[in-house]
Amino acid sequence: MIHRGVASFGLDTGHCPPWLFRRMVQLGREMVQVLIAEYGPDEFIRRIADPVWFQSLGTVLAFDWNASGLTTILTAALKEAIRNQERDLGIFICGGKGRTSRKTPDEIRNWGERLSLPPPHAENLVYNSKMSAKVDSALVQDGFQLYHHSFFFSRNGAWAVVQQGMNETRGTARRYHWFSENVQDLVSEPHSGISSASLVNTVLDMTAKKSDRSRRISTELVQAGYAPLMKEINLLRKFSSKLSQAAKFEVGGGQQLTFANFESREFKTHPVVREDFSKSKYLEKVLAKVAEAKPRNYEQLVSLQGVGPKTVRALALVGEVIYGAAPSYEDPARYSFAHGGKDATPYPVDRATYDQTIRILGQAVRKTRLPAEEKRKALGRLFG
Questions:
Q1: What is the pLDDT of residues 293-352, one digit of tens each?
Q2: What pLDDT, on the 0 to 100 scale, is given for residue 242?
Q3: Is residue 79 classed exposed, middle or buried when 0-12, 13-18 and 19+ CB atoms within 10 A define those classes?
Q4: How far apart are CA 235 and CA 242, in angstroms?
Q5: 254: left (phi over 0), alpha (psi -120 to 50) or beta
Q6: Most buried by CB count within 10 Å: which residue of 22, 151, 342, 351?
Q7: Predicted model pTM
Q8: Alpha-carbon gap, residue 88 to 340, rounded angstroms
């Protein structure tokens, strides 16, 4: 089950001061060594996938708790902290911010060669990295553009993804966490947590359980072949351009087509009214390619090159408007002013999780070989 929570952070500008980054690397190195010695590499990977723990670790390492830069700087600091110690520690960090994120597959393969991992194992890690990015950009359509992607994995095969998107209009960021043991299906509620500063009113969430039937019909539409698929797409085009008319109209040959039982008023604020499904050569080219591939399931459909947000929306809307298979339009992140509301709105503070996180990180700080003054400052940031 996904653990949803919010750590409110705005979109940062500027850069982390070099002196601060150096200190984060130094403390991060000590913290990682202690944590892995105490709990092992697989447990460290699991904790990285926990939004609460990740946020708390960034705070201990001295970055502003409510800044979006915590994600990118913490990842970079940890990556630098374990440099040349990866084999001994048993953990590996790939990717990062911007252009560095696009190097993730090559970095994973490079580690695969250096560790003599079986090629299929390394390629599976690459696939999971790519799919997590694809899912959070195409299946969770919340208005946040991914700009950071990092992939953590252990020698034993545990992996975690921490990636972040920005919404420049809102001036906020949103972070997505994945953990291998929690992922039963890459396209069905795969997240271990999503942290955001606020809710978005309408989000097409094709990963939700509520979207099961929509995913199935999307796959069936593609499996039917290009010609039948384009017939459905053209019906959607007619519907989206005639929302003010009745939900029944004439189609070619005098045939009567009845859409799913929707009244026009139901679509006044529906995403379909903002869509432009007029002739699009690119969309049709992608649909032709996908139909030719005949994917076995929705995951395989999404994994195909060229399948992006618009293709996903088109198939989902065909399934909804024509077949009545409505996907989820609920934001998968929950809003809170900080870590849950003291009045239990929208959900109670998860005291057990926070207390355990503070305890574990506090113990780790005390066991580091840092000077007493540095330990005191780190503990002060943790306990406030």
A1: 999 999 999 999 999 999 999 999 999 988 999 999 999 986 433 334 334 444 444 667
A2: 63
A3: buried
A4: 11
A5: left
A6: 151
A7: 0.85
A8: 38
Q: What is the CA radius of gyration of the chain?
A: 23
| Half-sphere exposure (Cβ direction) of 133: Cα atoms closer than 13 Å | 20
What are the start-end ranges of the H helices in 140-293?
212-223, 226-240, 281-293
**Which stretches in the chain have pLDDT values below 50?**
1-12, 65-66, 244-258, 265, 268, 335-349
User: 152 has which bridge partners?
Assistant: 93, 160
| Nearest-angstrom CA–CA distance, 317 and 301 | 16
Q: What's the pLDDT at 49?
A: 95
DSSP string of 289-310, one letter each residue: HHHHH--SSHHHHHHSTT--HH
Contacts of residue 187, defined as CB under 8 A and 6 or more positions apart, other chains included, come to 135, 139, 206, 207, 215, 298, 299, 302
Maximal C-alpha separation, the chain: 84
359-381 CB burial, b ≥16 within 10 A, e <16? ebbeebbebbebeeebbebbeeb
Map tokens 């000590």 to a residue: 30
Let me know: does 232 contact 277? Beta carbons within 8 Å. Answer: no
If we measure between CA atoms, which residue out of 156, 219, 165, 155 comes closest to residue 187? Answer: 219
Q: Residue 50's closest CA among 144, 191, 155?
A: 191
Query: Are 148 and 319 contacting, i.e. CB atoms less than 8 angstroms apart?
Result: no
DSSP-based three-state secondary structure for 96: strand
Q: Please list the alpha-helical segments (H only) found in 93-211.
A: 104-114, 119-134
Does residue 33 sit in helix, strand or coil? helix
Neighbouring-strand partners of residue 162? 150, 177
Going by their DSSP bridges, the two strands 91-97 and 172-179 should be labelled as unpaired
